[in-house]
Design brief:
The complex is a heterotrimer of chains A (618), B (201) and C (114). Chain A is mainly α and 618 residues long. Chain A has a single domain (27-544), classed as Cytochrome C Oxidase, Chain A (Up-down Bundle), CATH 1.20.210.10. Helix content of chain A is 66%, strand content 0%. Chain B is mostly helical. Chain B has a single domain, classed as Cytochrome c oxidase, subunit III, four-helix bundle (Four Helix Bundle (Hemerythrin (Met), subunit A), Up-down Bundle). Chain B is built from six helices and no strands. Chain B starts with 21 loop residues before the first helix and ends with a helix. Chain C has helices at residues 21-42, 49-71, 79-102. The longest helix of chain C is centred in the C-terminal third of the chain and has 24 residues, at 79-102. Classes of the chains: A mainly alpha (618), B mainly alpha (201), C mainly alpha (114). The interface between A and C is medium-sized, with 19 and 15 residues.
């Protein structure tokens, strides 16, 4: 975009080629678009993996894929959906929307932001490269020891998984540091913490979860790596090692991880509902405190994934009680969302449909979750399709529905055009029906005994009918995505042009053009209240009058804005880091070369603005 | 809306709207997450303490005098680190470079002590990564700490080399302060490891 | 606060006060003394295990506090910086304790194994 060049220091202001400008961008909005598009492609890949599994399971004694391939499919489907689809899709919204909603011009560390994206892309490509080598990971997305040991998984499949996750972990943690500093330290004047939009609060809690939970899985994976490559005994029962160590470390990460997956969607819903009910979020402070509690106590429930391993009654009870308690703040939020709608003046947009769908589907997933919280009940349900149904209700019915709500809500801000509402509603209904047809019967299948992670089943167990139904539902879901993709393509050129504020919104992002200029805000706003933008439009109902249109922005003000110029160090550093990490399964020379290159590029990255050109502190 | 344009001349992009520096804030949260990293490694060590099936145990092999000397080195290096910052604050760059070099050299000495320790355990005591749970958890925990120290030494020496070439002065206080925070953290992790692993029986 | 573009002797702004060089040296001396006492405690003949372990933990906590508070300046810094570090520290300690409990690794109990 020509406007990109206008705000950069003289030397870098020359026009760039389009590809180069994307490879070197440090603009949070472009990085958000990169995350979103990449995540969507991985989401489709994960979906295809699911469709193949559903085809295999549609009939008993099926031979579409082998057991080995099925193991790879469910491993890659889970890993892809968690790490390459939902998390980066949330990251797309963090990237695009956080600075806009807090009144900032970019994030605290723009080049680090770009680095996070390129590391994510490298990790995702590396993980999926395993398919090309016929060595896709096959140990489940949770990689339990000691199936993953060198003895039982001698091929490189597990190494692709292990190293891929390490790379992705770096990306997530760097982004976490960046957004924490951005949210705490770059809010517009007057925006106290309690005046921040709830989406920002949920994102902030998510970032803390990211930076505190990933170290645990980093250690778990390091111990695995040492076991596989250097002969350590961490997960080796014959040497006194305990496979449960893996499970504990993994779930100390894994449980906060599921809150990482759901909180952003909850934040989105907390923005969409007030906008389309024309009513403030009911009990916003309570929703915020509930989010904080969920984040904090989420570190105390991890062993509810391990009720069947024999931890003993004390541990089982402790984690069971903690898990049931955590349902309370979650339930509070649901009641607050419903109360927001109650008495509101509701406009049924596609974004609202998806948020309503979120509330219904997530609640259902929460109900099956509360059942799992009881160890004796869980002993029946664990490792069956009942659990598969539960987590798809919260992750698909919850996170994915929430993310699509955000997509339809913020699409006009990001692209400048509205998605077609008719096609949007068709997408919603197909997805809603398809999703429930796919996953509701899986509750039944679980209760009548169908285990997880089996590639086929005998015909006389009574599982045939619901498996077929579930498979049909999966293809209805697939059809819904065809509708969505068609909507995107169709409206790219001919969609209705959205102005700055197509939904009559409440928060700061709607006060600037769609799409926003590179500098976001020509004039940094001053905030007086939560939903300050709305109050500025309509007054506060207590005699506070609407603020009129602000004085036009002067050329001098625009000239004073300086945006960080593009940089090629992030993409280069991401490549070097990946060379170093993947060298662990290839050769020591690669580790050394990659390591030296990484060190050198870190130095160049750090020195890029050591003495910035006169007039631009960095 | 009562807006205001942020005056350009006063705008330091590293300082946020709270008046705090982004880089300092970022380093503190990084150190918070590193607490979880070392916490997981220490937790692993303690989970496996006393459960090795064979091989020498901790109190068969630990050289407390050497390790105490190493602990003292790191503590002293934390002192020289703050002295370096105090000098830099007054733009006494050469003094700062001197103190930073002392810090880095003490850190390097720590790492060399550790290399010696690992070598003597492996060669004289028969304790390797693969010997026992103790071997595995000890080497991985203290090895990663040593790797953190090594990273810090490299970072400090890079700052020294920049300073000697006239590229560091009082303007860079926060950058060096951030390196200092990292360095002190490496010290406090050792305080924890020294007590929990070496001293407590 | 913007840092001056030309080298100057002006102090960059830091939250709150600032420890002097003398304070730093004093803290370092105290740290050395505590370390010496820690090591000496190990050699006290016949000290009960619970007393040994708790005094070692207390002394190392004191050292931790001194380095974080004075050398890392956290005593003088804003609440934000404090919370960013102390919160995760507390979570990490709680998780270590939980893992110890889950693996029956009670270091405070008398050793019953060689």
């Amino acid at each position: 975009m020509a406007t990109q060049a206008a705000f950069m220091p003289g030397a870098q202001a020359k026009e760039q080629g389009v590809l180069w400008s994307w490879l070197t961008t440090v603009d949070h909005k472009r990085i958000g678009i990169l995350y979103g598009s990449t995540a969507f492609i991985f989401f489709l890949i994960g979906g295809i993996e699911a469709l193949i599994m559903r085809l295999q399971l549609a009939r008993p004694d099926n031979t579409l894929v082998s057991a080995q391939t099925f193991n790879e499919l469910f491993t890659m489907h889970g890993t892809t959906m968690v790490f390459l689809a939902i998390m980066p899709m949330s990251a797309a919204f963090f990237n695009f929307m956080i600075p806009l909603m807090i009144g900032a011009r970019d994030v605290a560390f723009p080049r680090l932001n770009a680095l996070s994206y390129w590391i994510f892309l490298s990790g995702g490509l590396f993980l999926n490269a395993s398919w090309l080598f016929g060595m896709a990971p096959d140990g489940g997305w949770f990689g339990y020891a000691n199936l993953t040991s060198a003895q039982f998984s001698p091929a490189h499949s597990i190494d692709f998984w292990m190293l891929g996750l390490q790379i992705l972990g770096v990306s997530s943690m760097l982004a976490g540091f960046n957004f924490i500093v951005t949210i705490l330290n770059m809010r517009a004047p007057g925006m106290t913490l309690m005046r921040m939009p709830v989406f920002i609060w949920m994102s902030l809690v998510t970032q803390f979860l990211l930076v505190l939970a990933f170290p645990a899985i980093t250690v778990a994976l390091i111990l695995l790596m040492f076991d596989r490559f250097f002969g350590t005994l961490f997960y080796l029962p014959s040497a006194g090692g305990d496979p449960l160590l893996w499970q504990h470390l993994f779930w100390i990460f894994g449980h906060p991880e599921v809150y990482i997956l759901i909180l952003p969607a909850m934040g989105i819903v907390s923005e969409v509902l007030p906008t389309f009910a024309r009513k403030p979020l009911f009990g916003a402070p309570v929703v915020i405190y509930s989010g904080i509690m969920i984040g904090f106590f989420g570190f105390g429930v991890w062993s509810h994934h391990m009720f069947s391993v024999g931890m003993g009654p004390v541990a089982d009870s402790a984690f069971s009680i903690a898990t049931m308690l955590i349902a309370v703040p979650t339930g509070v939020k649901i009641l607050n969302w419903i109360s927001t709608l109650w008495g509101g003046s509701i406009r049924f947009s596609t974004a609202l449909y998806f948020s309503l769908g979120f509330i219904a589907m997530f609640t259902m997933g929460g109900l099956s979750g509360v059942m799992h919280a009881s160890p004796p009940v869980d002993l029946q349900q664990t490792d069956t399709y009942f659990v598969v149904a539960h987590f798809h209700y919260v992750l698909f019915g919850g996170s994915i529905f929430g993310l699509f709500s955000g997509a339809y809500y913020w699409w006009p801000k990001i692209t400048g055009r509205l998605l077609d509402e008719g096609l949007g509603k068709l997408h919603f209904w197909l997805m809603m029906i398809g999703f429930n047809v796919t996953f509701f019967p899986q509750h039944f299948l679980g209760l009548i005994g169908m285990p997880r992670r089996i590639y086929t089943y005998a015909p006389d167990l009574g599982w045939n009918f619901w498996n077929m139904v579930s498979t049909i539902g999966a293809f209805v879901i697939a059809l819904s995505f065809v509708v969505f993709i068609y909507n995107v393509i169709k409206t790219t050129r001919t969609g209705q042009v959205a102005g700055p504020d197509p939904w009559d919104g409440r928060t700061l992002e709607w006060s600037i053009p769609s799409p926003p200029p590179v500098y976001n805000f020509a004039r940094v706003p001053t905030v007086h209240e939560r939903d300050d933008f709305w109050l500025g439009k309509y007054g506060d109902g207590h005699g506070g009058k609407p603020r009129g249109a602000p004085a036009p922005v002067t050329a001098a003000e625009l000239a004073a804005i300086h945006m960080p110029p593009p940089s090629y160090w992030p993409i280069l550093l991401a490549i070097a880091l990946s060379i170093m990490v993947t060298g662990i399964m290839i050769s020591a020379y690669q580790i050394i070369v990659g390591g030296l290159l990484t060190l050198f590029l870190m130095y160049k990255f750090a020195m890029e603005y050591h003495r910035p050109p006169e007039g631009h502190g960095h | 809306m009562a807006d205001h344009a942020v005056p350009h001349a006063a705008h330091d992009p590293n300082i946020g709207t709270t008046g705090l520096d982004h880089r300092k804030m970022g380093m503190w949260i990084f150190l918070g997450s590193d607490c979880m990293f070392f916490g997981s490694l220490i937790g692993t060590y303690l989970a496996y303490k006393g459960k090795s099936l064979s091989g020498p145990g901790p109190h068969d092999v630990f050289n407390i005098p050497l390790t105490s000397y190493s602990a003292a080195l790191l503590l002293a290096s934390s002192l020289t680190m703050v002295l370096a910052l105090a000098a830099l604050q007054h733009n006494r760059v050469k003094a700062a470079a001197g103190w930073l070099t002392a810090t880095a050299l003490m850190g390097l000495h720590f790492v060399l002590n550790q290399v010696y320790e690992f070598w003597s355990f492996a060669v004289h005591e028969g304790l390797k990564l693969s010997t026992s749970l103790f071997g595995s958890s000890f080497y991985v925990l203290t090895g990663f700490h040593g790797a953190h120290v090594t990273g810090g030494v490299i970072w400090l020496l890079l700052i020294v080399s920049l300073a000697l070439r006239g590229k560091i002065d009082a303007r860079d206080y926060t950058k060096v302060e951030v390196a200092g925070l990292y360095w002190h953290f490496v010290d406090i992790v050792w305080i924890a490891i020294f007590t929990v692993i070496y001293l407590i029986p | 606060m913007a840092e001056a573009h030309a080298p100057s002797t002006a102090q960059p702004a830091h939250g709150g006060g600032h420890a002097s060089v003398r304070t730093y040296v004093n803290v370092a001396i105290v740290l050395a003394i505590i370390t010496a006492v820690e090591v000496a405690t190990l050699y006290i003949h016949g000290i009960p295990n619970w007393l040994l372990v708790s005094s070692l933990l207390l002394m190392s906590a004191a050292k931790f506090y001194l380095v974080v508070g004075f050398f890392m300046h956290l005593k003088y810094d804003s609440n934000v910086m404090r919370s960013l570090f102390v919160g995760p520290l507390i979570i990490a300690i709680l998780i270590i304790l939980a893992v110890m409990a889950l693996f029956s690794a009670y270091i405070l109990l008398p050793r019953t194994y060689p």
